[in-house]
Design brief:
Elements: H1 8-11, H2 19-23, H3 27-43, E1 46-51, E2 58-62, H4 63-68, H5 72-81, H6 92-104, E3 108-116, E4 122-133, E5 139-147, H7 163-172, E6 175-180, E7 185-188, H8 190-195, H9 207-217, H10 223-235, E8 240-247, E9 253-264, E10 270-279, H11 281-331, H12 337-367, E11 376-378, H13 380-398, E12 401-405, E13 414-416, H14 418-434, E14 441-448, E15 453-460, H15 493-503, E16 507-513, E17 517-525, H16 531-534, H17 540-545, E18 549-554, H18 558-567, E19 574-579, H19 582-592, E20 596-600, H20 608-617, E21 626-629, E22 639-641, H21 647-658
Parallel strand pairs: 12-14, 18-19, 18-20, 20-21, 21-22
Antiparallel strand pairs: 1-2, 1-5, 3-4, 4-5, 6-7, 6-10, 8-9, 9-10, 11-13, 14-15, 15-17, 16-17
Helix pairs in contact: 6-19, 11-12, 12-15, 13-14, 14-15
Length: 669
C-alpha cells in the first residue's frame, strides 16, 4: 500500500488511519488499510491466536507459529490446547492448570514458558489473550504470541543456547553440560572443569576426549548408578537428579549433584539432555556430620536409658517403703480423721509416683531395645476378658458402662506377647474410661481385617480429640491439655502402647471427632485365618472413601514421587501434580490452587519452614493444608505422616487434611 491510497485530506502524510478516519474511507480503501496493518503486524516474529474453550475451535496465524510447526493450528495445539508436546516438560502441568482454570473462569492470560522449535532448538514464548463474548453469548479468547528468545548462535564446542545462562551459572560456580543424543556426545562447560581444579580454557575441544577424561575422575563404584540414571532419563523421560563423587586434581574427593531434563523434537523423539553440575561437598560433609551426631546421640540415649533404668529400680525401694509405712500408720486407731486424710494423700501421691517410675522404666527399656516380647499363640478374647474384670471397678466409679463384643471371634488366635498385649489393652481401655463422660459407654470389639489381621477396637463416648492435637496423641508426657483437669495421669500410656504394639509386630491407630468420642484400635495377625478373611481386599474402603481432590507434591527426589503415585494408583479420583523444585512448587500452588500440598522435609535450596512461611503469607495459598512426609512432626506443617507411609496412613492424613480448619488469622488473609 502506498501513501496515495489514502487522500491527503483524510490522513495527511500518515499511513495509519484513526477510527474516525476509517469511517470516512471507502470499502476498498478500508480493506487495503486492514490488509496493510495485518501484514505489518505479521512481518515481525509474532502471531495471533483464537481459542473457544467450550467447542475446542481454534485458529492461529503469524510467523511465530511457523517456527514450531508448518501448520499454525497444529503448533497452537502443541503449546496450548492439545497435548503440549512442544512445551518444556517442567512447565506442562502449570499450563494445563492455567488452561483448566480459564475454561471455567478468568478473562485474561499472560504467561511465558519454554518450548522447542521445529529444528529442536529451545525458545522462550510469551502467550497472552483476553476473553470476549460472541453473539451466542459464549466466551472465547483472542490474543498474541511472541518469541523473545535471544538468537541462537554457535558458541564453540559447547554450542550452548544462552551465554547469559552460562555466565549466571559460572557466577555461582555451577557447571553446564549437554548430551547430544543424535551423535552421542557429551559437552561440559569450563565451569565443570573448574570444579575439578582445572584453570579456564583448558577443556578439551573434542567432546569424546573430554568425556573420557571426565570418567577418569569419577569413582568407579559410582559410575553404574550414574549410567543407570542417565539411561532412565532418556528411556523413562524422568528428570535427572543423581549425586556422585569425583577425584579433584589435587587428590581429594568432591561430591557433585547432576541434574538435567530431556528435550524432544516436534515428533516427540529424544534429541538431547541439558543439565547443570553443582558442587555439594559442603552439604555432604554436613550430612555426614549429622549422621555421626545422630549416632552419638543414640549412644548417649542408650547410656541414659540404662541410667534411668538403674535409677528407677533404686527409687522403687524407698517408694515401696513409704507406701508400706503410710498404710501401717493408717491402721493405727490412735490416728485422728484429719491425720488419716493427710496419710491418704501421702499414699495417693506415692502410688502416682510409683506408676510414673514404672512408665519411665518401660520407655527406657523400649528406647534401649532391651524389650524382647515373647511372641506366642494367644486368644485375645480371653486376655480382653481378664482386662475387663480388672477395669470394671474403675468403670463403676466413673459411672461408665463397659461392654465387650467379640462378635463371634472368641476362638481366634493371634501372634503376640500375652503380658504386653494385656498392658496395651489396659492402657487403651483405661484411657477410654478415664476420659469419658458420666454415664458414657466403652465398647471393646473384635473385627477381622484384610489379609488375615484381627482388629481390637476400643470405642468411647468422651469429648474426642481436636484435629489440631491429633498429631501429638502418641507423644510421651503429652496429655493434650488434660493436665489442666482433675484426671490423674502421666501422659506416657499411649506412647508405651504404640511402641509395645509395634514391637510385637502389630499396628495401632485411632479415629476421633471432637465432641463425639474416639476409637483406638490395634491389629495383630491371626494364626490360621479363615480363607474368606484372607481373600478380603486390602483396606477396600480407602480408595472409595476419599473425595475427588487435587494434590501437589513438592519433592526433590524422583523416587519419592514414583512411590506416591504407586500408593495412590488405585485411587482414581485423586489427581497428583509433582514439582521437583520448591520455587516451582510455590508457583504451582498459586496458579493451580490444589486442595492439599504434600512436601518432603529435605527440600533442595530452601528450608521447610521458609517454604511454609511463603505459602502462609500469600492469601492465595494461606489456607491450603500442608502435609509433611517426615519421621518427626514439625510445627511448620499442619499434619505429618512417616516416610514409610502406606495407603492407610496416607488416606487418613488426606482425610484429615481435606477437612482441616484454620484458625481465624488476619495475617493469613
Amino acid at each position: 500500500m502506498s501513501k496515495t491510497t489514502l487522500t491527503q485530506s483524510n490522513t495527511g502524510d500518515f499511513l495509519l488511519a484513526t477510527p474516525g478516519e476509517l469511517a470516512s474511507l471507502g470499502a476498498e480503501q478500508a480493506l487495503d488499510q486492514v490488509q496493510y496493518l495485518h501484514g505489518l503486524l505479521l512481518n515481525v516474529n509474532q502471531g495471533f491466536w483464537e481459542w473457544h474453550p467450550e467447542t475446542g475451535v481454534q485458529r492461529a496465524t503469524g510467523n511465530v507459529w511457523q517456527q514450531l510447526h508448518e501448520n499454525p493450528d497444529i503448533a497452537l495445539s502443541s503449546i496450548w490446547s492439545g497435548d503440549l508436546s512442544l512445551v518444556h516438560a517442567d512447565e506442562r502441568d502449570a499450563l494445563r492448570a492455567l488452561r483448566s482454570r480459564l475454561s471455567q473462569q478468568g478473562t485474561f492470560v499472560d504467561t511465558a514458558f519454554r518450548a522447542t522449535s521445529r529444528d529442536g532448538q529451545p525458545v522462550w514464548l510469551r502467550l497472552w489473550a483476553r476473553a470476549f463474548t460472541d453473539p451466542a453469548g459464549d466466551r472465547f479468547f483472542l490474543g498474541g504470541c511472541t518469541d523473545y528468545s535471544e538468537p541462537l548462535e554457535a558458541r564453540g564446542p559447547s554450542n550452548f543456547s544462552s551465554e547469559r545462562l552460562q555466565n549466571a551459572l559460572d557466577a555461582v560456580g555451577d557447571g553446564f553440560w549437554e548430551w547430544d543424543l543424535r551423535v552421542d556426545e557429551v559437552v561440559l562447560s569450563e565451569a565443570c572443569w573448574q570444579l575439578l581444579g582445572y584453570p579456564r580454557r583448558q577443556s578439551d575441544a573434542d567432546a569424546r576426549a573430554a568425556l573420557a577424561r571426565w570418567k577418569t575422575h569419577m569413582l568407579p563404584e559410582d559410575y553404574p548408578d550414574v549410567k543407570q540414571a542417565m539411561e532412565d532419563t532418556v528411556r523413562e523421560r524422568l528428570p535427572l537428579d543423581v549425586e556422585y563423587r569425583l577425584k579433584h586434581q589435587q587428590g581429594h574427593v568432591i561430591w557433585v549433584r547432576c541434574r538435567g531434563n530431556l528435550q524432544t523434537s516436534s515428533a516427540g523423539q529424544p534429541i538431547r539432555v541439558l543439565g547443570t553440575l553443582q558442587d555439594v561437598t559442603a552439604g555432604k560433609k554436613k550430612q555426614l556430620h549429622a549422621e555421626q551426631e545422630l549416632l552419638r546421640l543414640k549412644q548417649e540415649n542408650k547410656g541414659r536409658a540404662e541410667l534411668i533404668s538403674s535409677l528407677g529400680h533404686e527409687l522403687r525401694t524407698p517408694l515401696n517403703a513409704i507406701l508400706g509405712f503410710s498404710q501401717m500408720v493408717e491402721l493405727d486407731q490412735s490416728v485422728n480423721p484429719d491425720q488419716r486424710l493427710r496419710l491418704a494423700e501421702i499414699r495417693k501421691a506415692g502410688q502416682h509416683l510409683l506408676h510414673l517410675v514404672g512408665d519411665v522404666l518401660d520407655l527406657a527399656r523400649i528406647d534401649s531395645n532391651r524389650l524382647a516380647p515373647s511372641i506366642e499363640l494367644v486368644q485375645p478374647a480371653n486376655l480382653v476378658a481378664d482386662c475387663r474384670q480388672l477395669l470394671e471397678p474403675l468403670a463403676e466409679t466413673r459411672k461408665v458402662s463397659l461392654t465387650f463384643e467379640p462378635l463371634g471371634w472368641e476362638r481366634a488366635y493371634i501372634l503376640a506377647d500375652p503380658v504386653r498385649f494385656k498392658q496395651v489393652v489396659l492402657n487403651l481401655v483405661g484411657n477410654a474410661i478415664k476420659y469419658n463422660r458420666e454415664n458414657g459407654r466403652v465398647v471393646i470389639s473384635l473385627v477381622p481385617q484384610a489379609e488375615g489381621w484381627l482388629r481390637l477396637s476400643v470405642l468411647d463416648t468422651g469429648c474426642g480429640i481436636p484435629t489440631s492435637k491429633q498429631p501429638q496423641v502418641f507423644e510421651p508426657f503429652n496429655r493434650l491439655g488434660a493436665e489442666q483437669g482433675k484426671i490423674e495421669g502421666t501422659g506416657v500410656g499411649l506412647a508405651i502402647a504404640r511402641q509395645l504394639t509395634e514391637a510385637m509386630g502389630g499396628r495401632i491407630g485411632f479415629d476421633s471427632e471432637e465432641g463425639q468420642g474416639s476409637v483406638f484400635w490395634i491389629d495383630f495377625l491371626m494364626n490360621d485365618a479363615p480363607s474368606e478373611v484372607l481373600r478380603m481386599a486390602a483396606r477396600p474402603d480407602y480408595a472409595k472413601a476419599l473425595p475427588p481432590c487435587r494434590l501437589l507434591y513438592v519433592t526433590g527426589h524422583t523416587a519419592n514421587a514414583n512411590r506416591l503415585r504407586g500408593v495412590l494408583s488405585s485411587v482414581e479420583q485423586i489427581v497428583v501434580q509433582v514439582c521437583n523444585d520448591a520455587m516451582k512448587g510455590i508457583f504451582s500452588a498459586r496458579t493451580a490452587q490444589p486442595d492439599l500440598i504434600l512436601v518432603d522435609d529435605d527440600l533442595h535450596g530452601v528450608l521447610l519452614k521458609d517454604f511454609s512461611s511463603i505459602l502462609r503469607q500469600d492469601p492465595a495459598t494461606a489456607r491450603i493444608p500442608l502435609v509433611g512426609i517426615m519421621d518427626q512432626p514439625a510445627q511448620c506443617v499442619d499434619l505429618s505422616i512417616p516416610i514409610n507411609y502406606d495407603l492407610a496412613m496416607l488416606s487418613e492424613a488426606l482425610r484429615r487434611g481435606l477437612s482441616f480448619e484454620f484458625a481465624n488469622d488476619d495475617s493469613q488473609g
